[in-house]
Amino acid sequence: MPQLPFDLATVDWTTVAIFSGIAFLAALVGNAIAFGSRFFGAILTAVFFAVFYVAWVYWLAAIAMPPAAAPPV
After folding, report:
1. In the prediction, which pLDDT does 24 show?
2. Which residues neighbour 51 within 8 Å (Cβ) at sequence distance 6 or greater?
3. Among residues 13, 16, 32, 71, which one has the fewest Cβ atoms lying within 10 Å of its Cβ?
4. Which residue spans traverse the membrane (predicted)?
5. 19 Cβ contact list (under 8 Å, min separation 6)
6. Is the pLDDT at 66 greater than 70, yes or no?
7. Confidence check: pLDDT of 43 > 60
8. Is the distance from CB of 31 to CB of 42 less than 8 angstroms?
9. Which pLDDT score is estimated for 57?
C-alpha cells in the first residue's frame, strides 16, 4: 500500500461509524418518501442528513456533554 498522508490509526472510527449511520438513515428516509423520483430522493437525503447531523452534533451533544468548567488557575 502506498504511503498515506495520514495514519489510519489516528482516525476516530466511532465518529466515522456514527456519521455513516446518519447518512444511511437519511438515505433510507429520503428514498422512502421520494415517490419514485431519484432526484427528489437525493434532495431529501441531503436535507435529512443535514437535520440528523445538526441534531446529533449540536443538540444531543449539548444535552449529553454540558460545557466544561474553566481550567483552574
Report:
1. 92
2. 26
3. 71
4. 13-35, 42-65
5. 53
6. no
7. yes
8. no
9. 79
